[in-house]
């Protein structure tokens, strides 16, 4: 592909739910550092969540990442609380791009579009993302998308029988 990939984000529609279900059951689709698939599979189905709010709640949501109009992944967010009031709430992003669409700038552009979308549609001041210290692709994508590397969160995530360090990134509304 030449030039910038045509990346867009859009809301999930009922016609997308089967695809999301397939991705959720596909170990190749998620992060090699995820390891939470069995736990994720026990959560409510996409259909149940879609019936409640179309996967766009007040504090959490999921958008489809499209390449030339075709869905190739998802970007989701959930709240992280740094104090008891609403102003102290950040939104933490997670992303998964289908293996066939990786390495062509889609993850970078999607994570840039995500903070633009969240700053436009919510009052949040901080959009953040954390990723395994060994997930080089995600670190590069976040840096190219305009997130600031803040440091390493030591021993944060317990997977495969031991603790893992995460790198923390953020984008602020006024960055
Ligand atoms: C991480 C992910 C979102 C990045 O998206 P992507 O579309 O593949 O990334 P981009 O094409 O925008 O590339 C970003 C940079 O990472 C580099 N990169 C891509 N894959 C790489 C890999 N396996 N190892 C090292 N660098 C890699 C790219 O070359 C690019 O850097 P460059 O411009 O200096 O060449 C995507 O690979 C993915 O969905 N992975 C599985 C799920 C995951 O890890 N999610 C994040 C968990 S927190």
Lay out the secondary structure.
Elements: E1 7-11, H1 17-24, H2 37-42, H3 46-53, E2 61-67, E3 70-81, E4 89-97, H4 106-121, E5 126-132, H5 136-145, E6 148-159, E7 162-172
Parallel strand pairs: 4-5
Antiparallel strand pairs: 1-2, 2-3, 3-4, 5-7, 6-7
Bound molecules: coenzyme A.
Q: What's the architecture of one domain in CATH terms? A: 3-Layer(aba) Sandwich
Strand content: 35-45%
How many helical stretches?
Answer: 5
Kindly state the number of beta strands.
7
Inertia-based shape: globular
Helix content: 25-40%
Low-pLDDT runs: none
By CATH, the topology of one domain is Aminopeptidase
N-to-C series of helices and strands: EHHHEEEHEHEE
- State Rg: 16 Å
The helix-and-strand class reads alpha+beta
* Largest sheet descriptor: 7 strands, mixed
Strand order of the largest sheet: 1-2-3-4-5-7-6
- Terminal Cα span: 31 Å
Q: What's the CATH C level of one domain?
A: Alpha Beta
- Name every ligand kind in the structure: coenzyme A
Q: Can you tell me the CATH superfamily of one domain? A: Gcn5-related N-acetyltransferase (GNAT)
């Amino acid at each position: 592909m030449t030039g910038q990939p045509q990346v867009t984000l859009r809301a999930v529609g009922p016609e997308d739910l089967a695809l999301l279900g397939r991705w959720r059951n596909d170990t190749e689709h998620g992060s090699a550092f995820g390891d939470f698939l069995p736990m994720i599979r026990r959560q409510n189905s996409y259909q149940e969540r879609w019936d409640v709010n179309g996967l766009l709640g007040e504090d959490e949501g999921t958008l489809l990442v499209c390449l030339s109009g075709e869905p190739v992944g998802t970007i989701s967010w959930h709240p992280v609380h740094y104090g008891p009031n609403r102003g102290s709430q950040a939104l933490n992003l997670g992303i998964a791009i289908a293996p066939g669409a990786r390495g062509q700038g889609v993850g970078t552009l999607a994570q840039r579009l995500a903070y633009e979308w969240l700053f436009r549609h919510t009052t949040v001041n901080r959009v953040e993302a954390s990723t395994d210290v060994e997930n080089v692709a995600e670190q590069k994508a976040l840096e190219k998308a305009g997130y600031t590397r803040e440091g390493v969160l030591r021993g944060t995530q317990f997977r495969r029988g031991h603790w893992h360090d995460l790198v923390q990134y953020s984008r602020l509304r006024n960055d």
